[in-house]
Design goal:
- By secondary structure, the protein is mainly alpha-helical.
- The chain contains five helices and four strands.
- Strands 1-2 form a two-stranded antiparallel sheet.
- About 25% of the residues are buried.
Amino acid sequence: MTLHCDVLKGDRALENCLVLDSAHILTGAVGDHVNRIQTALLVLDNATIARAELTTKLYGQSTTAAVLAYKTKRRIINFSYQKQADPIVGRMTIDKLDQEMFTREQRNLGRPSCGDEIRGGGGAALQFRAPLNVFRLGVTATQGQIGQNQFPRKSLSIH
């Protein structure tokens, strides 16, 4: 078994999580694999994750709450030994995150996204780059709202 979505695939810790019980991701974990999980939670559930956890790639208190909310909403529970969701990212959770993210990615094919050139009709293209986990779906940025970039005559909508 392998992961298919661009956000999760290719990460050894997450690939192992899909097939090994001993590779579950727990509160306190730190690394790129945690940041990928956080990104998926932000995209799929518009989760609220503390900026400090995002920047340090820490599976802290707010990431734990986001995972628990994600699993509770989707009833990701191993009924052979559980009665309610837990905050662990294991086989079932990483599989569901992967399925949903892959579906989202396929649906968004052909649409502009972070890293795409945005042409304003007046000359040079603006290359807009930002980590996926910085934005929430449906946020609209207008002139002067994103760092020092200026967007004369146009607004930029991030979906």
